[in-house]
């Protein structure tokens, strides 16, 4: 594991799992198991292959806390080398979809 991958792995646990849990009450146990089992980068890549917006991302969107989402971490400039352009596009699209959760139509 490179230093960059290790930092990403740590942020997946500390920011996406622990901070999100403490600040929103949403403890994503399945997410944590995946990160510990596969490593942060591999878990993120696998989750980005799934279709649609996850329930966890929907919850963070409804709480206006997408800053704590895995997808936001994937899009962070410092982690760009870890992900393909396509994976980053998927992350951006999911965040955009999650922003509309709970927003009443105008």
Please describe what this structure looks like.
This protein has helices spanning 3-24, 29-38, 40-49, 55-62, 70-75, 85-99. The protein is globular and about 35 Å long. It has six helices and no strands. The chain is an all-alpha fold. It starts with a helix and ends in a 7-residue tail after the last helix. 67% of the residues lie in helices and 0% in strands. The model has no long low-confidence stretch (mean pLDDT 93).
Topology:
Layout: H1 3-24, H2 29-38, H3 40-49, H4 55-62, H5 70-75, H6 85-99
Helix pairs in contact: 1-2, 2-3, 4-6
CA-CA gap between termini = 47 Å
Low-confidence stretches: none
Helix content: 55-70%
Structural class: mainly alpha
Q: Secondary-structure element order, as H and E?
A: HHHHHH
Beta-strand residue fraction: under 5%
Question: What attributes characterize this protein structure?
Answer:
mainly alpha; single chain
Summarize this, please?
The chain is an all-alpha fold and 106 residues long.
